[in-house]
Amino acid sequence: xxxxxxxxxxxxxxxxxxxxxxxxxxxxxxxxxxxxxxxxxxxxxxxxxxxxxxxxxxxxxxxxxxxxxxxxxxxxxxxxxxxxxxxxxxxxxxxxxxxxxxxx
Length: 104
Known about the structure:
The chain crosses the membrane at residues 56-75. This protein is mostly helical.
């Protein structure tokens, strides 16, 4: 009797070989996670603008980085000269020889 009423039958049942429709893409302005589990989610939800506006250290960090960049580049260029590399290799060789004799 129930089979005659078609109560338990699905009406728009897809054929067994058909794939399910793709899930709709989340809109760009979707709501944030309740708790950001991944590092990327934490970075995305961090209020950078608020901290930059209301905390002096973030602003001065940016200015100090830009001001110190020429000094860092100068030191890096000096440390990578061929003469300095040879000098460093000699120091390392001498240190290795001393350690090799110490543990024999």
